Every structure is written in structure tokens, then in C-alpha cells.
């Protein structure tokens, strides 16, 4: 079937007059000829000059970012308290006496009771919304590239918005929230903890005076012993640390064989020392935000804590959720993605501490 026949058939089916048919044929033929001579596709962000010898590769190379698995570092409670402005954490404290207070003896009256006191802590939430939009014009332009490029256009917008949330949340919760946010706290800017957020977080600036990887055998021994002793004293011997987060500047050096101890690295010695001291294995992790160039305190952070939801916790009442696309005019389409989070709260400050230096 010729172009003219196709155009006439379309004109008849639409009920066009003869003069309209001529205009339709001319328009169609002119468009095809123009398209053959200069097959150019333009959109808001880029121009693509295509010829009959151009093959478009629809896969797009994406920017790579520093990302870690946040749940390796912190307990994240997802789904609890969706759409609530405040979450409430309750604490119980036993007020019972010493064992001698309950000893039975002749002539003893009513037995002494053991009481429990309760306290509660309100945790503020923060909600976010992200707009994602496109037009039919954008889709039509992308579709000319073939290979599912129109789907790629929408998918790239979705992925870009999701990445914005993921990276922003990661830096906020593992480092600190923006200075504009005076309520939520991250891993590196905790100041108070406990039921009333009235107990100061402990920072030790003496135990680790420099990078562990650069220490001599004697210096290294002293630093590890001081860290173990400091945590045991802080917790009164009632808890064991499970996680130690170090600056990434330590990563390579700690893994190398230590010249003074045949067959072992400093990293292995750290793990062995904490296991022998507390009876539990410790996870040694690294974070770029612990490097002094990456945090507001301009210090190298060594964070030692018990990674238990009873000790510290962050909430994500609404994980990043993208809504269905909607339109008011069948041309402009929009979706909204939402998320709701809290900062990190330290419930037991006696099981969380910082060691810092500025070398």
C-alpha cells in the first residue's frame, strides 16, 4: 500500500473532504520526507542527531555513589507508626531492694514488694514527598529512539528520585542530619540519651590518640585495652559491645599482617581481644562519614556500641513508596513518592560511646 493510499484511507475513516485529503497527503508526505532527511529528536535535557546509520543504545550509564547496607550498622524499625507525628517509647525501671530486704525471719510482717517505675520518650517523625512527572511529548520523543526508551525515561526518573532519598537518608542516619534539622540525630552527633534524653553521650579523646593502623605494638595494645576498659566501666559490666565503626582511613592498614604478631593482622587482634574480654564476637565496620573530612565535628570517629534495638534504634514508619501516576488532562502525568523517618535515638547511653582523634 502506498503512502497516498494509507493517507486516503485514514482521511476517509475520519470523514475528511477532498481538500482536507489533499492537505493530509501533503502533510504526511512532507513529514516523512523531512523525517528521512533530518531524523532529529530533542528533549529538555539533550539533543540527539540521528541518521540512518545511527544505532541508539538504550541502556544508560548511571552515576555510582558511596552506599552501604544501613542495617549492618543500625537496627531500623520499619512500618511502625505510619503517618503519626510522634512515636512513643516506654521504659521500665525496677525499684526492688537488696536480697536481704526479702529474707524471711521470725516475727516478720508483710513481705516487701518489688516495684516497677515507667517512663516514656516521645520521638518526632519527619515526612518527605518527591514529585515525579512527565508529559506525553516526552514519551513520544523517547519512543522514537526505540528499544523501550520511553519506559527507560520514566524508570530513570523513578530511580533518580529513589537514589536521592537513599543517599540523603544514609548520610543523615550514619552521619548527621542537616543543621536545619534540630530534632533528628544521626550516628555521629548524638549528645544525650536515655528515657528523658538527659544522660550525656560519652566521648573519649584519650584512648585512641591516632590511627590504629599506624601504632606501634605497645601503642596498639594500650589503645585496645583502654577501649575495652572504658566500655566496661561505662556499662558497669552489664553489657557487651557488638559493633565498632571505624574511619575508612583505617581499612587497608588494619587488614595487613602485623609484624609483631606472626600470622595475625591488627584487625584480627581487635576482634580476638573484644571476644576474649566480653565473650562475644564484635563486628568491625568502616564508614566514610567517620573520617574527619566527612563530618561536621572534623574528627575521626571510632563508635563502639551494643547494636540492639533496646540500646539504640531508628524508625522508618513509611519506607520510600511511589504512588500511581495520575493526570488531569491526559497529557501531563505526575506521581508523588513519600517517605517518613525518624532520627537515631540512643535508649541506653551506657552502651554507646565515641572515641575520637583529629590526626
Task: Report on this structure.
With 359 residues, the protein is an alpha+beta fold. The protein contains eight helices and 18 strands. The strands form six sheets. The protein has a five-stranded mixed sheet with strand order 9-18-12-10-11, covered by helices on one side. Helix 4 (136-143) crosses helix 5 (149-174). It starts with a helix and ends with a strand.
Q: Largest sheet, order of strands side by side?
A: 9-18-12-10-11
Coarse morphology: flat
Radius of gyration: 32 Å
Q: Detail the poorly predicted runs.
A: 1-46
Rounded average pLDDT: 83
Structural class: alpha+beta
Distance between the termini: 79 Å
Helix run count: 8
Portion in beta strands: 25-35%
Element pattern in H and E: HHEEHEEEEHHEEEHEHHEEEEEEEE
Oligomer: single chain
Taking the sheet with the most strands, its summary is: 5 strands, mixed
Give the number of DSSP strands.
18
Helix content range of the residues, please? Answer: 25-40%
Summarize the structure.
It contains eight helices and 18 strands. With 359 residues, the chain is an alpha+beta fold.
